[in-house]
Fold this sequence. Notes:
This protein is mainly alpha-helical.
Amino acid sequence: MAMSDNLERMLDSINFPADIGLLWDSIPPFEDVGSGFGDHPLDANETTYDEYPGSSNMLQSPVSSREPDIKEAVIIRPEDQEPLQHYLSTMVKFAKIRSSASDNIYCYIFTNMGLTHQPLYEAILAWAASHLAHVKSSPTSDAEARFNRAAGLLYKDIRAREHVDLTLVTVWILLQYELFSARGVDGFISLLDYAADVVENIFEHNHADVVKERLGPVGLRVLMWLSAYDSRAAPFGNPCRLLRCLKVHSSIYNITDSRNRGSASHPIEFGTVESKVCLRLALQLNILKGSCILLGRRQYDNTERKSAWTALRDNLRAIREEVEESNVPASKLAMRVVHRDMDVPTTINTLEYNWIQLLGMYYSSIICFLQYDPQLRDSQGETSWPNREECAARIIRLSRHVSLSHPNCPQAIWPQTLFQAGVYTDDPIYQSWVLTTFAQAEAWGPNLRKIRHLFERISKYPREVKAHIDIIAVMRDLGGLFVV
């Protein structure tokens, strides 16, 4: 039976929600000429690996360079129906906004990638089943079994480097599960380490232009998101290998500046020039923030340390000029929100959302700098940076505006940034708003409940204690570490 017939039969077997029609219609036919998705049959001389994630030998298996002839469809089991329907009705709402309101990357991932790549398919089921268990207050055993199956398939995939886009997307979805479960940090870091193995390998053996082609618009975007998670896990001992790799290969900054093969008719593209600039700045901030945390944790001699901090501050100053002083209308609107302009429209478009989120990342990065370098100055001796309290207040204003525009939506919740702002604000009204926001958002994931409990504990400390509090120690007192 032809591949398109297989897909049509599978899609007909799923009772899709009525409200997904618009997004579904925007998705192109499955066949993507030259995309290279899917698995090969194994060659007799090829080997597999069973090393634990993070092992330096994970990707040492020989691989074939030939293109696959077919994409093998997954089998949708009867027990998959409920989590798949939940994914398509609920989990797609977690999709990060980048280009347009109908640019739902999670819908595209399911139809164009998940239905022909078993590890990704199982990861999607695991994530959806995890959220189902949360909203139903039911056992998580089914979700855990699905996650273990997906992770096992990922780590044993000897073709991971060939279909690198599929590999990174699978890692991303598995990270969503880890983030949801909030059951520790080891699994989260191991997945990031695995992604670093893959990314280091493609940069080691390919020119940047080839990397762009192999990743495609979906893989490239997910790589940007993974870099944010690499930074997010840095306080928990994550070595940030992915960020180090992207920093070394600085040409990554230019990936969003050119259109990818086939993107002219691709719904998952990078959008306008302003959207591409926003995405590039987000990647630079992720790398900068991760570098700041790593530098703050390591021991250097005074000369080396001073030189490293000076370089980071100068980079932060350059980003400030692009973020706060941009002439892009969306950026100006975001700055109006920062400065308490009461006439800013509540409804915001996609580009405005992106710039508001970017500003939140920028102020979060400043807070991170001030944590390790209270006398933040750049090489020219400037001291015009807002203090931690002001950065926190600005983040909360930005977050509140997004929540007004996107009520009861996971896209309006920025867990790490909002938690950070709540910890460092001294305004009781702002603190109360942060606490209420996390409480109202708990339906979107058990991790948000844990974040609320952590924030409640920390908010009880006096101001002078909070300024130097060891959040990791507080987490341990509350039951264990988890990635915020």
